[in-house]
Amino acid sequence: MNVKKDILRRAALASVAIFLFALAIIARLTYVQFFQKQNGRLWKDRITQYHIKRDTLRATRGNIFSRNEDPLATSLPYYYVGIDPCVAKTDSFNKKIDSLGILLARKFGERSRDEYTYMIRKARESGRKYVLLSRKKISFQERMAMQKWPFFRRDRRQGLGGGKFDAVYQRYHPYGRMALRTVGYLNPETSRGFVGLESSFQKELAGKDGVGLVEELSGGVRMPLEDGSDIKPEPGLDIYTTIDVNFQDMAETALLHGLEKYQAERGCLIVMEVETGEIRAMANLTLQNGKYVENFNHALAGGTDPGSTFKLPTMIALLEEKAIRPDQMVHTGGGAVLYRGRRISDTKRGGHGSITAQQVFEKSSNVGVHMLMNSFYNRPETYCRYMRQFRLDKPIGLQLRGETKPVVPNPQSPGWSRLSLSSMAIGYELKLTPLQMLAFYNAVANDGKWVQPMLVKQIRRANEVVKEFEPYVAPDPICSQSTIRLAKKMLEGVVEHGTARKSQSPYYRFAGKTGTAQRLINGRYQVGKYYTSFIGYFPAEKPKYSIAVVVDTPHGASIDLLYGGSVSAPVFREIADRIYAYDIPMHRPFASTSKPVRPSSRGIKAGFADDIRTISTELNINTPPSPDGWVKAETEGSKTQWVSQPTQTRVPDLRGMTLRDALHLLENRGFRVRFEGYGKVVDQSVPPGSPLPHPRKITLTLRQTARPDTLAVALNKHNQPGK
What we know:
There is one protein chain. The chain is an alpha+beta fold. It is built from 21 helices and 28 strands. The strands form 8 sheets. Strands 4, 5, 6, 7, 10, 18 and 19 form a 7-stranded mixed sheet that branches. The chain has a 6-stranded antiparallel sheet with strand order 13-12-11-22-21-20, sandwiched between helices. A 3-stranded antiparallel sheet has the order 3-8-9, with no helix packed on it. The protein is extended and about 130 Å long. This is Penicillin-binding protein.
């Protein structure tokens, strides 16, 4: 019994001891939290400076590449600059803090040297682990330069350190606004894709955010803890498009020339590969505040009456029905006819008289098409069935959001009238986009095989192909091969004898159709407000590229000069010329020669060594350069010697170079360049070999010193105003 009492007594004593110990711990915690001071500050105040919590770790957004594998949109790192002032040793800190203050004042200019040093010293005295030095973000190149500063050097043997760079990623377009509406951009508030491919492939590009621990510091700065991540973020996938940056540049240039010449309100230009449907270029420009900008995708979403380009589906339907022959005569009279109270007229005053069905198409006679359509007037459903067979009533299904649904009426459609069939035949009462019309013309160029236009070729994770898109070819041709042959002949006739004959090229043959439609404004068609277009393909005998050009609402002194043949066809010719000059395999082969071609002694040769060696091999020139980089030829007697350009600290010798090569060298040295004339550089305002001037400005004089290539001459003349 005494043993039992002894055990109970000991248990009671132990319980009292544990209780008193717990009270002591609680008292100590209360004292530390609310009363104890460290360096003159309460712990409860110090802990409000930073704390650790779980947060979202953003994934790096994927890139968008061109067909050439050049980045069209990428995410570049930018950095917030901060410092942990407690890392450096006291002696080293006191020696270098003033130098850091001077550098920060020069770099950011938000505070004076003394203000920077005072801020960092006070943070060190109070034990703060992080100070944000500027709200401005710096680039990667600036970060590399700052890593040479005290406190930011990687070598900490001197007792310094503490500099921090907190990375954030921003979307960057290396080619500026090129294809901006197609590539797209992000919503600045949500960082999600807003339009274009950025929006259409948001899920693939965005990747998957991670979850991890971050240290939230004063000023709202969050620093991820390297070992605190529960779920690592997965970078976004890369999108590889069919866009060729060279084609895109040529397309935007040609379209801009056409729009500026006629001060048009908007326009678009699409280049597509016939066999695969791969879109090589898609340019969209709109006049806004006196400048042309890419703020709407007219090619994809600009549905409207196509005008006379729709006469091709009409003629193919008639040919398939055996309702016409290309050589049958059509009496168009004086160029006007009254049909059920509506006047149908041709643009040519006095009309075309009696012409063949082939000429009706070549001259784009509205009256002639109306007369040929007699076979369909009592059976409009047959005509509409052909439109469905041609896939004109269905969206293209491009890998890009925002496509306008086509409107091709039929007798069951609301608003169908006795005049609808006649209007449709010449391209009215419809709603079609340039891309939808181009897909049809491309099918004709492709011997009747309808190919779905394609903008994205692959989705990759680094070098791993995650998904590959193959060209889709409709199982059934749009019409018979005999009709395709007749349709191609008609399209060739438009360029050789018809409304586009002034845009013929002596170097290749192309085929297509002009279109001019009055604009529908407030429910009424407006005379003088035209939607002009040209859709075609080239080379005519073996089509490789199909192109659609739209110049919407051009302005000019004469209405007769605002039709598709005068406005849009020359733009087609310009882009086709540029593509033909660029795509060397399209050229006819030259007869080979067994004798080596000696370099001409006329002019001075200069350029990039790799390019010159390639040309020397192809043209059998026996004096290729041996140095690397940018070189210049110096001739003594009969010998040619290639000399490397001077270092980056000297002005290069630009004489004899093309403007493109000269700009490359000068811009790498930070020059602002002005130039006069055209051709090759014959003089430069700053002598070759001299030290780089300040400010770095230079003027180049250009002159055509050698006999230019005939195609280049033709291109130059063609691009002159008024030509």
